[in-house]
Amino acid sequence: MIVVKVSPKYQIVIPEEVRKSMKIRPGEKIQVIQYEDRIELIPVRSIKQMRGILKGIDTSVVRDSDRI
């Protein structure tokens, strides 16, 4: 678990290993979501960057025999 400190200006630094693994660059937008008692940071990606993200996903669905 990585712990960061909130500055007096309420800023945090995203650790280098997280920035590299998430491919976060300076100036990039990050969506901040409050969910119950936690904060989630989600990088905003363009549709172009998302292309191919689901490549190789298993699309087979087991269906009931009366639904075929």
Structure overview:
The protein is 16% helix and 18% strand. The chain has helices at residues 16-22, 47-50; strands at residues 30-35, 38-43. The chain has a two-stranded antiparallel sheet with strand order 1-2. Strand 1 and strand 2 form a beta hairpin.
Short characterization:
Helices cover 16% and strands 18% of the residues. It has 68 residues and is α+β, with helices and mostly antiparallel strands.
What would the keywords be for this entry?
alpha+beta, 68 residues
Indicate the structural class.
alpha+beta
Q: How many distinct helices?
A: 2
Q: Estimate what percentage of residues fall within beta strands.
A: 15-25%
Order of helix and strand elements from N to C terminus: HEEH
Biggest β-sheet: count, sense, barrel?
2 strands, antiparallel
Q: Mean pLDDT score, rounded?
A: 89
Radius of gyration: 19 Å
State the distance separating the first and last CA atoms: 47 Å
Order of strands across the biggest sheet? 1-2
Envelope shape: elongated
Compile the SSE list and pairings.
Elements lengths: L15 H7 L7 E6 L2 E6 L3 H4 L18
Antiparallel strand pairs: 1-2
